[in-house]
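Researcher: Going back to the complex we discussed earlier. I've cleaned up the inputs and rechecked each line, so this should be the final set. Can you rerun the prediction on the complete assembly and write out the structure?
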Amino acid sequence: AQKVTQAQTEISVVEKEDVTLDCVYETRDTTYYLFWYKQPPSGELVFLIRRNSFDEQNEISGRYSWNFQKSTSSFNFTITASQVVDSAVYFCALSVLNSGNTPLVFGKGTRLSVIA
Amino acid sequence: EPEVTQTPSHQVTQMGQEVILRCVPISNHLYFYWYRQILGQKVEFLVSFYNNEISEKSEIFDDQFSVERPDGSNFTLKIRSTKLEDSAMYFCASSEEAYSTDTQYFGPGTRLTVL
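Model: Rerun complete. Updated structure for the full complex:
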């Protein structure tokens, strides 16, 4: 069975601070995919990134960066120079390569509040 | 940019009533999903659907739930006799391919309130 743990329930930072959201996953499968989704106050789920288990290269997209480490089963997300618009709940999710449709397994989410 | 749409945005119903939640997946996507998020909790998988049949379903998706692709564009979730605990945000998602190599894109959700 797959499991995603986001130990940080809520984080509050002051604007322009850097913040890292932690994600630890569990799976026995060797081929799997990791995702981050953002849920702003309006409620929708916005896709941010997908990584596969064979690609441990870190990724940077603007102020966002992701650190994937298989050795620690972690896929952490860093926001540099946070802004008020970054305030949202962030979900880490996992799916495994399988026949048929593969549901996403979500963590419980981390609520990020960025204060001006 | 293509997006998944859902209607209504908010549905209020009385316990025991039937509700139908509607979704229009991205047009070239072939795989469809429903997820549920009880207020303040994590997003949970309900069901996946491909080629006019259910591919996988979770324990939550019991006999009171059903899904249908009534035409070439809509994908619906029906709850036959709603319970108080069905109150949640229901998200529809679609992906171009079945395997987890492909990203599931989510709609804005329907907030269901059962009174």
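Model: Worth noting: Chain B touches chain A at residues 31, 33, 35, 41-45, 48-50, 55-56, 58, 89, 91, 93, 98-101, 103-109, 111 (CB under 8 Å).
Researcher: Good, that matches what I expected from the previous run.
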